[in-house]
Amino acid sequence: MNFLTNEKLVIVGAAGMIGSNMAQTAAMMRLTPNLCLYDPFEKGLEGVAEELRHCGFEGLNLTFTSNIAEAFKDAKYIVSSGGAPRKEGMTREDLLKGNAQIAAELGKNIKSYCPDVKHVVIIFNPADITGLITLIESGLKPSQVTTLAALDSTRLQSELAKHFGIKQSEVTNCRTYGGHGEQMAVFASTAKVNGTPLLDLIGTDKLTNDAWAELKQRVIKGGANIIKLRGRSSFQSPAYCSIEMIRAAMGGEAFRWPAGCYVNIPGFENIMMAMETSITKDGVKFAEIKGTDAEIAELKQSYEHLKTLRDEVIAM
Ligand code: LMR
Predict the structure, then answer these.
(1) What angle do CA 92, 95, 100 make, to 5 degrees?
(2) Residue from 80, 125, 159, 242 whose mutation best tests the ligand 1 pocket (most atoms within 8 A of CB)
(3) Can you tell me which atom of ligand 1 is nearest the CA of 151?
(4) pLDDT digits 0-9 by tens, 302-313
(5) Which of 7, 38, 130, 252 is within CB 3.0–4.6 Å of 71 for a Cys-Cys bond?
């Protein structure tokens, strides 16, 4: 079986739970033979590499290192889970202080060692801000950095499928914007439920306004719910979604999830893209984003929130 590309993919934080899951997923999806595991935690890393070898993935040329320069040399794709995870009772933003520093270093290392990288996925929290910091420090284009919108849009799809008692694949075109946290803007205007626009269902007895408001909250709090259920932060879904985004960036599934959710590559209107394309001297415009007036207003609010956070981080 062929690989999608021969270009180098680096998993940052590969000794951790999410990182090792990403590595296995990437190997199973046969993205590239050129898979490099990086983690400063040397011993754990060797263990993960050894296990992957025991899986016997055909044609895989696995390397691992605790040296960032070596890891990033010739890297074309990077996915990073290399920050502290959230614990019960914390918000994603509670992680900002420590993880902001890690994101800044990551961005600087990208600039120094692999400025020609094609795509980077950042998933450590608060993912929208850490992604933004990495973007700023690396000098990459907004379309080259993605965070966890694919996970959020899949959560929306899953919640809608549960609500209507249908298969997840019967819910399509789910989109979320505005960051991966409390300020997430969950849009209704693109999604379809069994072919019917979601907007036509909201406010009817099939999905009352109150039920829709609660459903949106379940999407926003999807990660906190996993912590409640597992006693620890999510690992399978962020690992899988981030590798799917890398696969999309490699050209495997252009722009779209197989399940019909929107992937933010490239041209996805995530908050970073919105910031790049829409800040003009006349103010902020979300020209590329289609939604109802209320949705656009919500997104503007979340943008302001992210901007404030970003300014705080820059001032640190
Ligand atoms: C998630 O949404 O599952 C991740 O961001 C982890 C978390 O702490 O919520």
Answers:
(1) 115
(2) 125
(3) 2
(4) 667 766 766 665
(5) 38
